[in-house]
Design a protein that fits this description.
413 residues; mainly alpha; ABC transporter transmembrane region fold; two-stranded antiparallel sheet; 76% helix; 3% strand; elongated
């Protein structure tokens, strides 16, 4: 399967895996952090039940254990953020370099069709969205593992109370699915509009002398204003959709937390669970709220990043109109010197130049720009004659000499 047939996510993962060591350290740190966070409430439960209520155990060992767990969580968070950020910046760096390298290989006709603003938007805002998405992934992987571990411990502590916490899952799935189908098109349109604004600004800045010379300042200002208003409207549409769905994703776990606290408090008052178990449950529920909110943020930025990634790959998948032969040899980096021997710039050296050119094998194509018609007719097999930037005749020596316009302009006839 070639690159174009792969999905955007699979292709992006290919860039991520170029830094396997940083990815491995980041995910290992995420696992360590999740384990430390999942174990802390169990230590708190043991302190409340065994040390405070039953007074059957010593406090010091459990406090030392809590300090060790907290230190492990801190170290894991540091490694996860540092290595994850390094991977995200590295992928952004690779994408920008590959876009630049691909543009250098494109033919002039294809480059002329590419708006400068769209290219700048892909290299700046789109790659920034990709970086933001990749910064989220190690954190979310750790939070996902924390959720799984927390639910496992909660089922072990009290299955009825744990089942209450699972009620929110279907609601989250429905809202997330609706959010995915709405935000992605809106984000794609906003990023396209941003590229159009950048294009207009680039044209106005680079052509400011022409604009001022013809007194078109008001016209250019109106063009930029109109395009900026369209960008504002498109971005507000994306903001409106995000503000509709993201609060729902954040509110649903809060309602679940209220239900768990109410039911758990009732169980604790009736002696169904211990006070330490209830404390552990409330801690787990509090820990699950943050991952759920991060999931809401990830889903939002994920749709934006998807639009950016697909726009980047759309550029990288453009094939140049002129391609190398399948058996072309990559020259690589060449090193050498240029020696100037018997080089002159005078009119008398033209015969020496012709002699050197004629010594080159005839199967080698040579393009020569020459203002001396005698030299051109003596050497070239096919000639293109231009006058004031316009081609007036193109053909063999005979065709050029026989053309009356050439005779009038260059041959003095």
């Amino acid at each position: 399967m070639n690159a174009r047939e792969q999905g955007w996510l699979r292709r992006l993962i290919g860039y991520v895996l170029r830094r396997r060591r940083d990815v491995a350290i980041s995910f290992a740190a995420a696992i360590l952090g999740a384990a430390c966070q999942a174990g802390a409430p169990l230590l708190e439960r043991q302190i409340v039940d065994g040390v405070i209520i039953e007074r059957s155990e010593s406090l010091l060992p459990w406090l030392i254990a809590l300090i060790v767990v907290a230190a492990g969580a801190f170290l894991a968070a540091h490694l996860r953020r540092y290595r994850g950020g390094k991977v995200a910046l590295g992928v952004q760096y690779d994408l920008r370099n590959e876009m630049q390298a691909h543009l250098q290989q494109m033919d002039f006709a294809s480059l002329d069709k590419m708006p400068t603003g769209q290219l700048v938007a892909r290299a700046s805002s789109d790659t920034t969205l990709v970086q933001g998405l990749l910064m989220f992934i190690p954190m979310m992987s750790g939070n996902l593992l924390l959720t799984v571990l927390s639910l496992g411990v909660m089922l072990w502590l009290s299955p009825p109370l744990a089942l209450v916490s699972l009620i929110i899952a279907p609601a989250l799935f429905v809202v997330s699915y609706r959010m995915r189908t709405k935000i992605f098109p809106a984000t794609w349109d906003a990023q396209q509009k941003e590229g159009e604004v950048i294009q207009l600004v680039d044209e106005a800045v680079n052509g400011v002398r022409v604009v001022k010379a013809f007194g078109q300042e008001r016209r250019e200002l109106e063009r930029v204003t109109e395009s900026s208003e369209e960008l504002y409207g498109s971005q507000m549409r994306a903001v409106r959709l995000t503000s509709r769905y993201q609060p729902l994703l954040q509110a649903i776990p809060a309602f679940g937390q209220v239900a768990i606290l109410a039911f758990g408090g009732w169980l604790a008052l009736h002696g169904e669970i211990s006070l330490g178990t209830f404390l552990a449950f409330t801690t787990y529920v509090g820990q699950l709220v943050s991952p759920t909110r991060q999931l809401a943020g990830l889903l939002a930025i994920g749709q934006q990043a998807r639009a950016g990634v697909e726009r980047i790959f759309q550029l990288l998948d453009l094939a140049p109109a002129i391609a190398d032969a399948p058996d072309a040899v990559e020259l690589g980096t060449l090193a050498g010197d240029i020696d100037f021997v018997d080089v002159g710039f005078g009119y008398d050296e033209r015969r020496d130049v012709l002699r050197l050119l004629n010594a080159i094998p005839r199967d080698v194509t040579i393009v020569m720009i020459e203002h001396d018609m005698d030299v051109a007719l003596d050497f070239a097999e096919r000639i293109t004659v231009m006058h004031f930037g316009k081609v007036i005749v193109e053909g063999s020596r005979t065709d050029v000499v026989a053309d009356p316009r050439v005779a009038e302009i260059y041959l003095g006839a």
